[in-house]
Write a structure and sequence with these properties.
The chain is of the alpha+beta class and 180 residues long. The chain has a single domain, classed as 3-Layer(aba) Sandwich (Aminopeptidase), CATH 3.40.630. It contains 3 helices and 7 strands. Strand 4, helix 2 and strand 5 form a beta-alpha-beta unit. The longest helix is centred in the middle third of the chain and has 15 residues. The N and C termini lie far apart (55 Å). Bound molecules: coenzyme A. The site of coenzyme A has 17 residues, from strand 4, helix 2 and helix 3. Coenzyme A (COA) binds next to strand 4, helix 2 and helix 3.
């Protein structure tokens, strides 16, 4: 049976990249897909309020469909800004949104007098590494990244956390850097 009901059609979408607002924070969990990182997201937002981090969101119809975070603090003495948590909602990948987010993050760093942007990418994330190389990032090292986070394991119906467990993460990553 032919299941195509309507022929293919195109849409035009306006996307704005803007600094994360308090009302965006829960939406960064992407309908539960990233709820296990709730504390990580909230911690980044707290650091943004202290001016150590900038969280940029790519907004479509007032919903954050992509994001990148910028650490202005970690390596400020070497004028290096560190990008992390770059992600774009799966059905909207390969449309140029990630490229725009990285460009916007680099502009934030240039505007604050940083000379370099740095990021880490897992060894097996070949597509992201290719994108970074295309955008001018060069591999400057590799390392074993060990970190942990508290994952909510049960919540009340109104979304309050009841229980959580600590998750230990070990990943092997390339370190990449670009002069701005
Ligand atoms: C990595 C990631 C953020 C990239 O975001 P994205 O929006 O897909 O990135 P872009 O669309 O700008 O670029 C991806 C590809 O699409 C291509 N592209 C860019 N604009 C395009 C357009 N208008 N039409 C078609 N393709 C396009 C790019 O050239 C690039 O090609 P490549 O795969 O050959 O490198 C996204 O894939 C993602 O969220 N992945 C999961 C999380 C992740 O791995 N994050 C990185 C951690 S280090």
């Amino acid at each position: 049976m032919d299941v195509v009901i309507v022929p293919t059609f195109s849409i035009t979408a306006n996307i704005t990249i803007q600094v994360c607002r308090v009302e965006d924070v829960r939406n960064l969990e992407w309908f539960g897909a990233l709820t296990e990182y709730r504390h990580v997201i909230e911690h980044a937002f707290t650091r943004q309020q202290m001016s150590d981090v900038v969280m940029l969101n790519a907004m479509l119809n007032d919903f954050p469909i992509g994001q990148v975070w910028i650490d202005l603090y970690k390596q400020r003495e070497q004028q290096i800004g560190v990008l992390w948590a770059l992600r774009v909602l799966l059905p909207l990948q390969n449309l140029g949104i990630g490229t725009q987010l990285i460009g916007a993050a680099e502009n934030v760093l240039r505007g604050r007098g940083f000379g370099w942007a740095e990021l880490d990418v897992e060894h097996d994330n070949i597509a992201a590494k290719r994108l970074y190389e295309r955008l001018g990032y060069a591999t400057v090292g590799e390392f074993e990244n060990r970190w942990s986070y508290l994952k909510p394991t049960s919540q009340t119906p109104d979304d309050a956390i009841l229980n959580e467990e600590r998750i230990e993460v070990v990943s092997h990553e390339w370190k990449m850097r670009k002069q701005l």
